[in-house]
């Protein structure tokens, strides 16, 4: 009974406000999920909110069963996300560790150059010319190399490493450990919170990216990504007045699906993987940002 007496009017108002915010935040996602799981012909009538009226998996069956292009795009998105995240973490942590060393001669000049890249950009045309001259057009490496190093990620990791006890490195050196051993066996294990944080940043960036596919790899069907295919579906549906992917309404109706239902199903497919990863990294996500930002 004592616990209920401590609840103030402010606590009650705050709780109600948070519940309203949660409902407003969740409603669009639940609405998309309901439409993707509802019969397409029934969806055309409207009135779908958070629950499907006529439950069906026909929309998802259409995506993975009869459209090999979307399935290949899904696999490519997963592949570039895994490879891009892993290589990005390796490159960023190694550079951040190097810049965190006080005995590194070019510490400040390289740090200044990294910060400048956050404020100054060459632009789209120079970027395209660089990618073309490097021979990355229509190559898988175009998804990995341009996103290998991010100045923002390196600065966060470096700030975290600067707060690690220097006595650990000194004691390791006295025991005969070299720089690579110190980095692999001491620095990396202690930096897992910030590594998990940056991994989430990289994974979300790789998974949601579609513009690089449009610029550099759209002529190679084997390199198409799920987000790029989703963008094309949304663009075709809007420009053709909702006529669908190939403007064949009769075919969609015969298959008990339509462009709107397919768009919602693909949106769920593109969103769910990231939502499934985040809960496992949430505690590291918060810890990594706070510890890396406090001196």
UniProtKB/TrEMBL annotation:
Residues 74-281 form the ABC transmembrane type-1 domain. It is a multi-pass membrane protein. It comes from the Bacteria. It is found in: Cell membrane. InterPro entries: MetI-like, MetI-like_sf. Pfam families: BPD_transp_1 (PF00528). One of its GO terms (cellular component) is plasma membrane. CDD domains: TM_PBP2. GO terms for biological process: transmembrane transport. Keywords: Cell membrane, Membrane, Transmembrane, Transmembrane helix, Transport. The chain crosses the membrane at residues 12-30, 74-98, 110-128, 140-161, 182-204, 262-281. PANTHER family: ABC TRANSPORTER PERMEASE PROTEIN MG189-RELATED-RELATED, POLYGALACTURONAN_RHAMNOGALACTURONAN TRANSPORT SYSTEM PERMEASE PROTEIN YTCP. Belongs to the binding-protein-dependent transport system permease family. This is Sugar ABC transporter permease.
């Amino acid at each position: 009974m004592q616990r209920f007496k401590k609840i103030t009017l402010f606590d009650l108002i705050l709780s109600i406000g948070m519940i309203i915010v949660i409902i407003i935040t969740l409603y669009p996602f639940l609405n998309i999920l309901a439409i993707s799981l509802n019969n397409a012909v029934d969806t055309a009538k409207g009135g779908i909110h958070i629950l499907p009226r006529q439950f069906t998996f026909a929309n998802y069956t259409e995506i993975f069963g009869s459209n090999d292009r979307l399935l290949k795009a899904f696999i490519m998105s997963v592949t570039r996300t895994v490879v891009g995240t892993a290589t990005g973490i390796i490159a960023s942590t190694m550079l951040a560790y190097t810049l965190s060393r006080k005995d590194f001669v070019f510490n400040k000049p390289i740090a200044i150059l990294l910060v400048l890249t956050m404020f100054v950009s060459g632009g789209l045309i120079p970027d395209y010319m660089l990618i073309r001259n490097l021979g990355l057009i229509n190559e898988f490496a175009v998804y990995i190399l341009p996103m290998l190093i991010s100045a923002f990620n390196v600065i966060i990791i470096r700030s975290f490493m600067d707060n690690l006890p220097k006595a650990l490195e000194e004691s390791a050196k006295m025991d005969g450990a070299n720089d690579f051993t110190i980095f692999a066996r001491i620095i990396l294990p202690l930096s897992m919170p910030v590594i998990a944080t940056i991994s989430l940043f990289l994974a979300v960036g790789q998974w949601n990216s579609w513009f690089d596919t449009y610029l550099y790899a759209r002529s190679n069907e084997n390199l198409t990504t799920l987000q790029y295919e989703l963008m094309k579906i949304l663009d075709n549906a809007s420009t053709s007045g909702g006529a669908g992917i190939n403007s064949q309404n009769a075919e969609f109706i015969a298959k008990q699906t339509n462009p709107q239902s397919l768009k919602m199903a693909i949106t769920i497919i593109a969103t769910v993987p990231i939502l499934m990863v985040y809960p496992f990294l949430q505690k590291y996500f918060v810890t990594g940002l706070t510890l890396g930002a406090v001196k």
